[in-house]
Design brief:
binds adenosine-5'-triphosphate, six-stranded mixed β-sheet, Alpha-Beta Plaits
Length: 311
């Protein structure tokens, strides 16, 4: 099956302006996004995520490379490729004089959706704005406006939905509602691409993740494989009385004493087992009151791949 998105050799250089030299924002991206996935695009500020998304959305012109959306090459079939994708932008760029119904109708018109095929009521229902359908956008709360942006991205029934930082600065209730909607759309077969700064959220929501830094893809894999990549674990023990100074940890294990008496051991599961650490503690004559272990999370993987490189 052709991927939902196929990107190869994608480069973008923004032209110099004033004293600013030209800026190469994308340095040759190759990326396939599978159909039906929830795909996360992560990276530090300035990594190139918005540039990539804006190229997909047709808002920024690429410098080099090819982009195929739902099998349609942007350069060869610009209309079809544009019709296959809907983008929920970061900014709340809504016309204050349109009602939600009006905004959805205008957007459908822009995409050439015939009146008989419009799904305005269904979309209003999905985004929870049925009872605000005819209110001026300027009277809507920030959360309602964001939901309306999601609605606008859906009017032409795209196969792919792109969400740029959909939950930045929104409250928990709205965040939960957005994710429920996203799951529902994905269950119905829509491919979802999202950027987020909340790594926990990406870990929970995404099947696959690409980590971008300095205009390059640093890693692209299933979330499970990415998490497995860092075989790092931490064991925290509460000894009955010993201190870290009395313990000799196994080779390659980092030990750290905490002010409250707990001692943590960070180890690679490929080299050391929990038993090795417990044996070392026994050899040092330490009796243990409590033991906890924690696994690496996406934040560890992210930091590992973007360390010392934040722009
Ligand atoms: N219109 C522009 N003109 C010149 N340089 C730009 C322009 N837009 C972005 N850049 C530069 O390109 C690089 C990538 O920016 P981009 O906005 O794509 O990053 P990002 O990963 O989306 O960051 P953020 O998370 O902060 O939105 C940055 O160095 C940025 O300053």
């Amino acid at each position: 099956m052709t991927p939902a998105i196929e990107i190869s050799g994608l480069k973008k250089t923004y032209a110099a302006s004033g004293k600013e030299p030209p800026k190469q924002a994308l340095k040759g991206i190759d990326l396939d996004i599978p159909r039906g996935s929830i795909f996360g695009l992560l990276g530090p500020n300035g990594a190139g995520k918005s540039t990539l998304i804006n190229i997909l959305a047709g808002l920024v012109n690429k410098t080099e490379g090819t982009v195929k959306i739902w099998g349609f090459d942007q350069d060869v079939n610009p209309r079809q490729s544009r019709a296959s994708i809907g983008v929920m932008p970061q900014e709340l760029n809504l016309d204050p004089f349109f009602s939600p119904r009006g905004a959805l109708e205008v957007q459908a018109g822009l995409y050439g959706v015939p009146k008989s095929q419009r799904r305005t009521d269904e979309i209003l229902e999905l985004i929870g704005l049925t009872d605000k359908a005819n209110a001026y956008a300027r009277s809507l709360s920030g959360g309602m406006r964001r939901r309306l942006l999601l609605g606008k991205a859906l009017v032409h029934s795209p196969q792919i939905l792109v969400l740029d930082e959909p939950t930045a600065g929104v409250d928990i209730e709205l965040r939960n509602m957005l994710w429920r909607n996203v799951r529902r759309l994905n269950d119905d077969g829509m491919t979802i691409i999202l950027t987020t700064h909340y790594l926990e959220e990406a870990q929970e929501m995404c099947d696959e993740i690409a980590i971008v830094n300095h205009g390059e893809i640093r890693a692209c894999d299933t979330t499970a494989n990415l998490l497995g990549r860092l075989d790092k674990k931490t064991m925290v023990i509460q000894p009955k009385e010993a201190t870290a100074a009395e313990i000799t940890p196994p080779e390659g294990v980092e030990m750290e004493g905490h002010p409250d008496g707990r001692i943590s051991f960070t180890y690679r599961t490929s080299h050391t087992s929990a038993d090795d650490i417990l044996d070392a503690l026994r050899r040092s004559g330490v009796s243990i009151r409590d033991v906890k272990t924690t696994e690496a999370d996406l934040e560890d993987v992210f930091l590992d791949l973007t360390r010392d490189e934040a722009v």
